[in-house]
Amino acid sequence: MHRERRPAQISLALLIASTITLAMLVLAIFLVGQTFRGMESAKVQAASVAARHLAISVDDRILAITAPPSTALAVLSHDPLSSASTLEERLSRLPVIANILRSSNIVSAVYTGYANGDFFLLRKVRSSGVLQFPDAPDGTRFLLQAIDTVAGEQRREWRFYDDTLNLLEQRAVPDYVYDPRSRPWFQSASETNRTVLSAPYIFFTTRETGLTLSRRAAGSTAAEGHGGTVFGIDVTVSDLSTQLAELKQTPGTHIAIVNGENQLLASTNDHSSPGPEISGALNHQGTRVSNSAVTRYEVEGEDWYGMSEPLNALSAQQLKIAVAIPADELLSEVWKTLVRQTLIAAVIALVLLVFGWFIGTRVGRPLERLTDQVSQLSRFRFDTQIKTDSNIREARELGDALDDMARTIHSFQSIATVLNRGQNLNELLHDILLQIAHIVGQERGAIYLFRGQHQDLSLAVNRDLDIPDTLNNITNDLDDNELIRLLRSQIGGHPVFAILRNRQKHLVGVLIVEMEHGDHTHLSDDLIVFVDEIAGSAAVAIETRELIESQQALLEGIIRLVANAIDAKSPYTGGHCERVPKLAQMMVEEAITSTAPAFAGFTMSEEEKYEFHLAAWLHDCGKITSPEYVVDKAVKLETIHNRIHEIRTRFEVLHRDAEIRYLKRLLQGDDEKTAQDERDDTQAGLQEDFTFVARANEGGEFMTDEDIARIRSIGERTWQRHFSDRQGLSTDETIALLGIPEAELPARETLLSDRPEHRRGWGDRIPPVQKGDPANRWGFDMKLPEHASNRGEVHNLTIAKGTLTEEERFKINEHIVQTICMLDALPLPSRLANVPRLAGTHHERMDGKGYPCGLTADDLGIPEKIMVVADVFEALTAVDRPYKKGKTLTESLTIMAKMVEEGHIDNEVFDLFVRSGTYRTYAEQHLRAEQIDAVDESLFMNNA
């Protein structure tokens, strides 16, 4: 391949640095050589002296730690506990041991080991400021660990005591295996009458670092077997670390105490073993400084000074104290002096800089041109091409590097835009793959998504790769390396794999980029790390989008659940909450595409369509509060049951009364024909009156004044009641009768009645639907009935139209109030803020006579007007209403045309409904065949 020939190049560093830097180095070496060595030596010697003083101070502290426990142990060796052979005898000495523990913060346990292997130990449950036994009962201060021999068998148990030695819990611990005779503290104390101090070690139970003081009981000899009885006291040395921290010479100083085997006893750092800084101080690795005991060495690129001194307090343990000081902290004063010396050098450098400036201007012009181009980058113009024709190699390479940087940043901008703005998961995956492949200069790739329920990887996006659609046997617990090995065994070529994991490190999927262009085919580590980092951001974006979509699906499911629950609540309205959204959505789509003047500027975004969709599904959610017997009321006397049966019984009583009167007259000798005629006339009248009452109970389109008067007349007939009406009542019925005196039996009752107990007041639960109500913040404007309910028999039977009383009609209408209140109480996001209004206006009228707010056509938008038409048409054509049959298309449209004239529904929306044929499309999907008749649309469009 032909390469463009470049002009001869020279090094900018060689041209300028060789003149100015060389002169500065000579001056700097001269100044540093005069001051650094002497000041370093002085500082190191001072540090060495301080380390020796520190060793003396620590010696004193160790002696202070061990002296009091040693005294207590000497006294304890004469205690009767040494000869106690049973657990009960040993428990009697528990207060003595507890007093030893209370008297010292550093004593963590006091115990006794016996020649037969018994063990009796009392310890604090909180030692070194840490709760050592988290499962101890609340209030525990001490833990007794006891092993005693009973009938040749060892019994192992733990007992938990509070501060006053009250037993809180006794716990058998069969797995607690411990033989004191095998422990060094027991064996070493058995051979002498003096107190024995152990080397620092890790305690058996608490895993703390400390010392053990042990002493053979007075009068006990080694001849007794395994040394007789031995007392022991554990002493923690954690407070040594606190004292060491107070003695640091500089903030970064590390101090540690170790034994002869370099085991860590105490340290200013929270480590379980000596760190590399302390190890350097102990082993004297590095370079001796000025013939002193101080060594200079390097740890992880940082210089340290280290020294160590022996401790005499525990000479048998060969303890040493090691000190490591960061060089930059120890020599901070030295460096300050060097700064002052550098200022002197700067004066000399000024002279040299004059000459350097002259040279620099000759080579700076290309850099100025690069600066102008880079300034475009500072204004976020990352599509700017950076180039220079300079003969200086560094300037040309800098231009090339900046150009690469600009292209890379531009690619990052593109992928950031994709990750932030992706709305659809499938489109997001395509864009992520495209952008990442573009950044690494490739074209082919794929993305698999992990399906936890199937334990596999499913192919979501593929750009020209011959790979399987599903990779099976993939589990979430596979680490990245195992997963990549599994993928390489099934996918050929030269792919780079990026494992996509979410914030919780759970597997999301795998991104694959096929490396087939340029220099990237060698799969460098830098490239793999780069793709992994970009894929990490992509995984978070994918997780976020999946979460949003799952939340939206959950919201949809809950809404459908509520709507289906409302429909399922009543067998007469099933499917209403599902059919209205479908019809409303059809009409919205027609309105958007319509060219009619009324809809010329109407459009809806996807978010607005979704908002309308939710509102349509929730338009009757308030019905969940409507009493079922009101919603399903098929006859006028129906409440929980049809009360016509009670009235029929009263007619039966009057019928039998007529029969009884007839028989009595015969017994009295009256004329049989006259008595029989009277009976027959009375019974025939009762049959006729009951038939009329029963027919009135069924309801209808209209009830005349004459019919109402006849109901009242029939109701005035009386009958005799011989049983109390105050027995067997519910609490609600009893409360309703309070203040109403009971009539004496037999009582004369009317055939139909409106009793005081039939009327129930609002009490303190008045709905906020009236204007002027302080609780009415929604703008409701509805008439509130005088009573919450009225079950009076005459009141119900004289309903002029339909089966609902004024009170029940209000209860039905109140569902829209509850719909608005319920939806308004939801913490809906701003994009769904109009859901309460869209769902709560489908009972408004264009003339302002609707409810609940009495809005007019000017107050309603096209979506609200569409909801009105959809709700009306579905109600007219529904076949599941108890008070009417589903109407045909012609009947329904005729009624709706009349409603347009009356100002109930909107003229333009009804015209769109007819012209677009939406009514017929809906009918073909949801109406019965007999309802779908031939419609003369011109009749309704003219009307419209």
UniProtKB/TrEMBL annotation:
Ranges of residues in domain HAMP: 361-414
Pfam families: HD_5
GO biological process entries: signal transduction
Keywords: Membrane, Transmembrane, Transmembrane helix
Residue spans crossing the bilayer: 12-33, 342-360
One cellular component term from this protein's GO annotations in UniProt: membrane
HD-GYP domain residues: 726-929
Gene Ontology molecular function terms on file: phosphoric diester hydrolase activity
CDD domains: HAMP, HDc
PANTHER family reported for this sequence: CYCLIC DI-GMP PHOSPHODIESTERASE PA4108, CYCLIC DI-GMP PHOSPHODIESTERASE PA4108-RELATED
Name the record gives this protein: HAMP domain-containing protein
